Amino acid sequence: MTVSHGEWRFWYDLHKGTLLAAMLFVGMFVIYASNHPAGFTPNVIQTASNKATLLAFVAMAQCLVVITAGIDLSAGMVLVLCNCLASWLVVGTPLQTGLGIVAVLVTGLACGALNGVIIIFGRLQPIVTTIATSAIFFGLALLLRPTPGGSVNETLADAFTSKLFGVLPTSLVVLAATILLVWLPFSRSVYGRAAYAAGSAESAAFMSGMPLKRAKLSAYSLAGLLSAIGGLYLTFFSYTGEAAYASGNAYTLYSIAAVVLGGVSLAGGKGSAIGAVFGALAFRTIGDLLFVFDLDPLWQPLFQGLVLMLAISVGAIGLARVRNRLDWFQ
């Protein structure tokens, strides 16, 4: 079976953002690893992977919402809330630890569902709603952890942040499994297609009878679940819980940057969570590059801002050339 030039062109246009983000990350990481004092070793890969995984989960969460033409400014605070909750619950016997993990994930799912319900049925703007709920989630986190503390099942934490077979970072395996179990089924489902349609041309999708409300609710709920996984991983890395306001805001803003770098259109209806993951990996590598070249860490926000501005400019140029948003799918 041969594939026509038109089919290849369509496939490339569909995945162009993901491919560019992947190439950007690979190029930056090769420069980083080749200049690292320890060289290109499994430990270097593991350290970089563990640092980038947290942002990758939140970027996936942000992507799910952005493709519906929404935005989630509470993603970072859901991560912080679930981090604080995990520092209370993911301890003790294997049964208690397992139940604690389930409780943390259900909490994230509920936070996302709350955002979706308010936006869909309350008919409020996503940006206003998620600003309000982010304050609520941070308040709950502060009630749980007025000061940093708590603990986590260290055996489980070590298992999820170590290397498989002494080579492959477990965090990357979990990230890949999350893509396979959460993103791919959603993107190929009726609700996933409806989410893309809502972001591209909501009125036309509504007239076509697509389940827009359920699609948006699914997107926001899964976004909360993914942020909860990030919060769980933060607890595995730090062995503690902390209601850090600055950290929550940073993860929210960085997730938007990662989404843009990953080729996801902020106008909605275009992009992939896989691209957002590569965008997160590339965004985190900027700081690593500053480290290996011994540049002042104070320069990091400047470089991150320049990269983000470049990515936004490229996306804006592409959007300006489209006469109708439905042209994204032609």
Automatic annotation (TrEMBL):
Name the major location.
Answer: membrane
What GO terms fall under cellular component here? plasma membrane
Give the bilayer topology: Multi-pass membrane protein
Give one GO term, molecular function aspect: transmembrane transporter activity
Q: Where in the cell is it found?
A: Cell membrane
Q: Does the keyword Protease apply?
A: no
* Residue intervals passing through the bilayer: 14-33, 54-79, 99-120, 127-144, 164-184, 217-239, 251-267, 299-320
Keywords tagged on the record: Cell inner membrane, Cell membrane, Membrane, Plasmid, Transmembrane, Transmembrane helix, Transport
On assembly, the entry states: The complex is composed of two ATP-binding proteins (LsrA), two transmembrane proteins (LsrC and LsrD) and a solute-binding protein (LsrB).
- Put simply, this protein is called Autoinducer 2 import system permease protein LsrC
